[in-house]
Amino acid sequence: MHLRKYILATLLIFVLASCYREQDLDRYRNDELSNMLTLNSLVSADSTVQVAATKPYFFSDVHKGRTFVTDLDIAVSINGEEKEHMTYDANRHLYVSNTKVIPGESVTVSTRYRDKTVKATDVMPEPVVIEGITVSRQGPMQIYTDADCVVYYNLTFTDKPGDFVKKPMRECTGKEICMEWLYHIGVPEDQIEELATNSANTVPVMMPYIDAFFMPRAYGDRPKVVPDGSVNFAFLGQFAETPRDTIFTTEYSMRTGMEAVYTLLNIDRGVPEVWGSVYDVRDLLDATVKLRDGKKPIDMELNLVEKMALKKVLGKIEGTDLEKLLKEYHII
To answer: Which pTM value belongs to this model?
Structure first.
């Protein structure tokens, strides 16, 4: 009977903590919003400068698309020197120019709007053929000989042709990427192809953008670690699908590797379980407080009836393990 009362008390606290109120968002509006202007410009090397000028909107407003501002006088400057005034292309909703930006130059777009100057400045980065090189005597596993070394090198601008291999790096084979690297570290040109063919094994890898981890997806968008019917290959790492786990952790990568090995080799050994936080009331209580920026649920605004009910509930659980639990996780 006492246990039933404690359970009912806990449920009542959660009900009170989940109450909601209507908010008047209009009180957050101000005159500055109607006077704001956004200049959007994606400038790439050797391309002309183009700008989209749009009006911002209040986050709760219903909107069907961007509101373009078409009557501006936008100037383009390179390294502080004004080059031209842009013209508006109504078909593309863009202000266009004939100005091209080369690597290393500073580009500024500026205009006057509602008696204020709106401008943006940035520097076109220099293309880096090879961003970094790491050389180690051994790889992650001891499968190499004393004469082997493992080389990793990174390229950022994969759309530009190489200096030795006249192809964009994203279109190159592993051998061609190795040849480009050998050229940049000073290997004689007449030895490059032979070394890349007979003395190296190059594996090209395209690294995803960091926000690829958090893009919306559905079950089936990513392959299973061991696809149905597979007997000799598996998918490892953050972009393979393993049940219940959360990506962006070392544990996720390790778990996919263990799952692949145990499944393909028919090893009778369990993969470590994912911590079942979704079923642990302690984690749920902790998450409730964190979602409220550390504020206790009982500190929210309550009317008189709610306050009296809460006081009655707290009195019922005083001195119990339930009260201790709620205090430990800062619910009360």
So the answer is: 0.41
